[in-house]
Amino acid sequence: MNTEVCARFGIEFPLFAFSHCRDVVAAVTNAGGFGVLGAVAYTPERLEEELRWIDDHVNGRPYGVDVLVPGKIDKSAEGGGLDAMLAAIPDEHWDFLTGLFAKYDVPLPDFEQAKRSNARGGTQVTAKGATELIDVSLAHPIGLIASALGTPPPLMVEKAKAAGIPVAALVGTSEHARRQVAAGVDLIVAQGGEAGGHTGEISTMVLVPEVVDTVAPVPVLAAGGIATGRQMAAALALGASGVWCGSVWLTTEEAETSAPVKEKMLAATSRDTIRSRSRTGKPARQLRSAWTEEWESPASPGPLGMPLQMIVAEGAMRQITKIAESGNPGARQLANYFVGQCVGLMNTVKPARQVVYDMVEDFADAVDRLNTITGED
User: How does pLDDT run across 151-162, given as a tens digit for each residue?
Assistant: First the structure.
């Protein structure tokens, strides 16, 4: 596969794998793709530990880091301090959460401890916190740094370019892509609404050619619901130089996904996801569950903005996931995770390396079919 991104990043396959799991990142990079570690809400110390591990396991092969730098956060959290963030969360949200645990017969976590732990994570998605993660990332031999949400701040672009590291950014519209290029971004990830996590509403099939035409000659990766080599072939036909996949790694052997959630994903169809603000405060596609339904119910106080909703939700979800693993039926109803509509194609557990090879083989078969149609050898 001789696409522009293969040559630029020194990889065999134009397949970028976004994952919060370092094992997946290393496995994909070692299989000839390009692993990207999602560092959302990591502390600088945790990120340093993860990147050291990856460095030790990829033998100099290229990988990247994705940092969440939201363009807008809840105004009450703009101070960024831990105590200020906790004070900005209304009591009714903690009361709703307590009631939710009681309704589904899930043991309550130590909310006071969880609050402070989650607030520390929440500070990492402020401008100050993200800058710390950027500095940690650039101190390692990474091949790419990506901005997961919004236009990267000038400081991120300046520091990356000074270090000779390309900058990528995810976009959901051609207007976003135009702004990203103007900000100095080197690689655009056009992410359709089918994607897991934070995403817009335009489908991948429509978005990719729009963005390709808007930012040419800047290379574009297609993202959003891509889990097969056939879809990779389609993305290249639309003008993309490669693909960016996240959800497909969630049912691999190495994935961080908990066993109950992995079981849900393996059984899910493409209709079993929903864009909801209930986990992060911004619309993010995830498995539909009792958690998403309750936050949309009339009894709900409504999700807060980012990062305040993350502080409320993520500690609670850690407890729910832990209890779900013990077989608690209520926790299993509540448990969910971010995943795209391609979850309906994710029906077996495989090593991440095998997913790469299967996608490449499927890609080759798709190209052969097209060559048959066109009469090419």
Answer: 888 888 999 999
